[in-house]
Structure formats: C-alpha cells, structure tokens
C-alpha cells in the first residue's frame, strides 16, 4: 500500500492540498500513476483536491461499485476466498505477511533499523533508536519488570520494560505474536534493549470515518443459537415485527446462527433441535419473516457447521436451502460496504484469548476488547491458543483497510465503543443464560439489536425481552 505521507507530499510539491478521503482512496487503489493523473486533471484554481475532482470516486470506493439503494458489496471475505493450507511453508509466509504489513504501519510513523544492524554494530550502543519486531514471548521478572522477546527477519532481541517508566503500562498489555515498535537504548554488552517508548500499528488520531450521503440504517445482531433450549423465540418474533417497521435497509449477523451439534460435551441435553440440517432450516424460516427489501448479511461463528480455524468459509450450500433470496453469505471475517460505510464483521472468538492475556480484562468489557484489536490492527493477535487460525500465505485477520464499524459477537454481552473514528459493536445474543455461563458467572444481555444510522454512525440499542 502507498504511504499516506508520501501521497500528501507529492500533492504539496505541486502547491495542492489533498483531502484525507482522497489519500485513502489512492492507497486503496494502490496505483502510483493515479496520483499524477489526478494532479493533471484538477482545475488550475484548485486549492484542496477532494472527491469532487475525481470522477467516479464516490462510486468506486474499495475498487468496486456500490449503490445507495439497499444493496451491499463484499470488499473481502466473499465465498471461496479463505483458502486452504497447502504445506507447512504457509506458516512461514503467514507470519512474514503479518510482520511486513503491521510493521509497515508502524514504520510509516517512525524511522527504525533492523535488529541485526543494531546488535552487531558497536556504534549504536547507548544511542537512542527504534526497532520493530513480533513478540515471541513475554514474562515478568522477579523484580516486577517486563521482558519481551521480539524478532524481525534478521535477529531476536530481549527488551526490558522497567516498572518505573511510563512505557510499562503498555508493556503490561503485551500479547504474544503482536507486532510492536520499541524506542530506547541497547545495553553496553548488546544483550538487552532498554525500552522508553512503544508503538503499535494503531489508528491515527486524526482518522475520520466515512459517512453515507444517502439515508440508510443497518441493524447488528449476533449469536442467534437456533436449536438451543435457551433460544428466545418470543423475543425473536418481536424483533422481526420491529425490524419490518424500523426503516432499516440492512441486517448483519456476526455468527453462531445455530447452536450446532457436538460443539461441547453433553450439548445434546441442551438442544430442542438435534439435527444440524433442521437447525439451519429453522434459522432460514426465521429470517424469511424479515421483509425482502432488507439485505441480510450472514457470517459464521464457532458453533456453525464450518471449520473452526479462522478465517472461516461461508455456510455450505446444503445447509442454506431455506435461506431467503435477500440473504448474502460471507466468511468470518468479512469486510462489507454499505453505501460507502465499511463494516468489518468478525465473530470474535479471539476475545477469549485476549481476556486471558490482558490484565483486568473481562467478558463485560467487549467494547474494550474491540479497542485492543484496533490498536494492534489485528482481529486475533495471539496465535496457537483457544482461537484456531488457518495460516495461509497471507494473514486475513489484519485490520486493513480500516472500517467505519467493527461488528463482533461471541461473548453474548452487548458492548459499544468509539475509538479513533471506528464504531465498535458487540451485538449480544438471542440465547438466555446457559448452564455453562451460569457456572462461569457470565451474565448475557440477550434479545438486543443495535441500529446505526449510516449518515451519522450514531448507534441505538433496542431490547426485545
């Protein structure tokens, strides 16, 4: 992807300013020649280059056409795009891709040097510099400091985060396999790097979300769990009546459409529908009650009949025979475009891992967990834990490009957050408290839906108990 600062400088060289939306559009097209074509085409009296100077920009955001009537375009995560693992070599490509993309985001904000260049050259000892690496291990010393092992493509480095330094607050939230930049000094013996500042890929503080220029509303839900004896059928019927009168154009469902079969030991004792085909048939009949003018976008979750490893493919055709024609199937995760407003749908299984790794995190803080994803620009930073990941040649879980809305589920607790121009929505569940949740003291927020006005990105929560 082209560097945003370099794009802006090229315009400034010709005494032009450029709107951030145009910069992002050029980055998404990833075509250096486009800059020169735009500069050549603007009128002589132009001061700021905006969307109006680029024919078709508003109609080709994300490289494809979107309409302002109730239609949706899939930017990524369409059927058949998740791919498969062909060999163990894919794992090497996967982590290289993750490091390259996330490291590049950090590198755009600070100059850095390879770890090997730092450790092998004595002239860098005790000189302040920055290195970028992937965290391979994090531990706490007996004195309460934090040490992280990081690595890039050249070498490894031990980084010390002292508890009496401001940077320690960032170090407490370090997750294995995330990519960070660290500014500090190398010890005189070259064995330890003393950190003074840490950088994450994060979102720029001046990020501004795109707002639709046409009326439109989207409704967000998750974790329907059809087939479970705790599914709230009466609440669902109230929801269907409501959405028909709500003025919504889109309904997005972020996984766990059904409760599934054999997902956990003894599950059959908690099912009212014990045949997986019948569960999906029941779900299809339920969403058929929603007016056909509403586009329904459906992604899978860990209870659905697809592989557990992420990215997860779409629900197979043999299970969707009763889904209505206004239903669109996407993978998990998927980036969809609603009237120019981009929504990143992700079921959210990695929240389990993040809660276990970040001090003080809990299931009641689903909004905070979405912020942690956005700061790391990754949906599932920690590899090899409770969230299985299919390591293909590219990392489909990197958050790039930035969405206007991040839509998750999985934890069954509704959560909302606003972080640097991105609206985070965890859409709760349509299942009352299960036996397992009661045992774990998890209190769900069932039968809720979040509706967002696409012209303002203001969310509103509705309850149907």
UniProtKB/TrEMBL annotation:
The keyword Nucleotidyltransferase applies. Its EC number is 2.7.7.7, 3.1.11.1. One of its GO terms (molecular function) is DNA binding. It catalyses: Exonucleolytic cleavage in the 3'- to 5'-direction to yield nucleoside 5'-phosphates; DNA(n) + a 2'-deoxyribonucleoside 5'-triphosphate = DNA(n+1) + diphosphate. CDD domains: MPP_DNA_pol_II_small_archeal_C, PolII_SU_OBF. GO terms for biological process: DNA catabolic process; DNA strand elongation involved in DNA replication. SUPFAM superfamilies: Metallo-dependent phosphatases. InterPro entries: DNA_pol_a/d/e_bsu, DNA_pol_delta/II_ssu, Metallo-depent_PP-like, Pol2_small_arc. Residues 219-409 form the DNA polymerase alpha/delta/epsilon subunit B domain. Keywords: DNA replication, DNA-binding, DNA-directed DNA polymerase, Exonuclease, Hydrolase, Multifunctional enzyme, Nuclease, Nucleotidyltransferase, Transferase. Pfam families: DNA_pol_E_B (PF04042). GO terms for cellular component: DNA polymerase complex. Heterodimer of a large subunit and a small subunit. HAMAP family: DNApol_II_A_arch. Belongs to the DNA polymerase delta/II small subunit family. Possesses two activities: a DNA synthesis (polymerase) and an exonucleolytic activity that degrades single-stranded DNA in the 3' to 5' direction. Has a template-primer preference which is characteristic of a replicative DNA polymerase. This is DNA polymerase II small subunit. The gene is polB.
